[in-house]
Amino acid sequence: MNESKRVRWGVIGLGWFGEVHADNLAEMPDIELTALCTRRPNRLGEVADRLGIERRYTDYHELLADPDVDVVSITTHVYDHREIAIEALRSGKHVLLEKPMAPSAADCDQIIHAAAEASGLFMVGHICRFDPRVALAKEAIEQGRIGKIISMHARRNLSKAIGRLVLDDISALMGDGIHDADLMLWFSQAKVSSVYAQEIHPGQNKYPDAGWSIARLDDGAVAVVESVWHLPESTPYAIDARLEVIGTEGALYINCGEAGLAIHDAAGVKMPDTMYWPRPFGRYAGVLQEELRYFANCVRAGQTPQRITPEESRAAVAWMAAATESAQSGAVITF
User: I need a surface site. Which of 56, 256, 258, 319 has the fewest CB within 10 A?
Assistant: First the structure.
C-alpha cells in the first residue's frame, strides 16, 4: 500500500468500546472510517447516522467481502474473537483484534496459525504498550537501571457500576488483569512457570468481580496481578491502575490512576481519563489513537507489527486462563 494512501477501516462490534474505536477512527487524518457492523440494526443506525457512515452491515461476512475495506477492528465479545478473526484473516483484511485475543490459549493458537498463513497483517490491541509512561518504564528496564527484576505487583480496579455492565461478558482478571499480565511478561521477558489465584464474587453477575493471581516466572521473579471491579460508585477514579516493579538495583512505579486532573464539584471528586481516549474541546486524543495510528502505519508500509506479537498476547491469555482454573480448583497450575 502507498504510504500516503488513506487506510480504509471497518469496525466489527459496536458495544461501548467498539463505538470508542469508531469515534476515534472517524477523527483521524489519513484514516477513513468506511464501514460499521453489529447484529443490532437499531444500534447500527444510531452510530452510523451520527458518524455519517454509509456502509452498514448486520452480518460481518458481508463487511469482510467489501473490497473497499482494508482493515478491520474486531471489538466483539471475546467468545466471538476466534471465529471472526480467523475469517477476517482468511478474507485478506488486515486485522486489529481487541484484547484478550481469545478466552483460551488453544483458541489463540488457531488465530495465530491463521495469521501466519494470511496475506494481511495482524495485531492484538494491548493498548497499555502504547502508554508513554509504560514505554518509558520499559526503556528504563532495558537500560538496566533497576537491575534484574525480582518482584512485580499491579492493581487495576474499577467501580462496581462498570462491573455490573461488563461482568456478564468477562471476569475482572481476564478482562483487565490481562493488561498487567502482558506488561509484566513484556518487562521481564520471562515465561510463567506456575500460577495460583483466588477470585471473589460479591456481585450478581455471571463472572467474578475480583481476582488476585500470583505467578512464579521462569527467571525466579514473582508477579502479582490484582483486578477488582467492585470499588464504590463514589470512587473518584476512572480506573485505579498502578504497577510496581522492583529489581536488584532499583525500582519503578507507574501510576495510571491519578492522571493529573481532579475535578471537585457539587457531585464530589472525579479523576477523568486524561490519557487513553480523552476528548478535550470535542476531539479525541490519547493512547488509543497512538495504537490505531501505529497499526495504520504498519499497513501502509507493509511491515509486521513489532510492538506486540501474537505469541506475546497468547502468553497473557494463558496466564489469566490458568488463574481462572486455579481460582476454581484451588490448585497451583504448573506450566
Answer: 258
Angle between helices 105-117 and 310-329 (to 10 degrees): 170
Buried b (16+ CB within 10 A) or exposed e, 245-281: bbbeeeebebebbebeeeeeeeeeeebebebbbbeee
Q: Characterize 174-195 residue by residue with b for buried, 16 or more Cβ atoms within 10 angstroms of its Cβ, and e for exposed.
A: bbbbbbbbbbbbbbbebebeeb
- At 63 the three-state DSSP class reads helix
The whole-angstrom separation of Cα 138 and Cα 156 is: 19
- Can you read off the three cell numbers belonging to residue 182? 502482558
Residues 251, 146: contact at Cβ < 8 Å? Answer: yes
**What are the sequence ranges of the domains in the chain?**
7-126+284-308, 129-276+316-334
Tell me: the pLDDT tens digits for 161-214? 999 999 999 999 999 999 999 999 999 999 999 999 999 999 999 999 999 999
Cα separation, 124 vs 73, in Å, equals 10
Which pLDDT tens digit goes with each residue over 124-146? 999 999 999 999 999 999 999 99
Q: What angle do CA 164, 170, 172 make, to 5 degrees?
A: 75
Q: What is the side-by-side strand order in the sheet with 31-37? A: 55-57, 31-37, 7-12, 71-74, 94-98, 122-125
226 strand-pairing partners? 155, 212
Question: pLDDT value at position 3?
Answer: 56
Q: With CA atoms as reference, report the closest residue to 209 among 156, 167, 161, 159.
A: 167
SS3 233: coil
Domain 129-276+316-334 in CATH: superfamily? Dihydrodipicolinate Reductase; domain 2 (3.30.360.10)
Superfamily of domain 7-126+284-308: NAD(P)-binding Rossmann-like Domain (3.40.50.720)
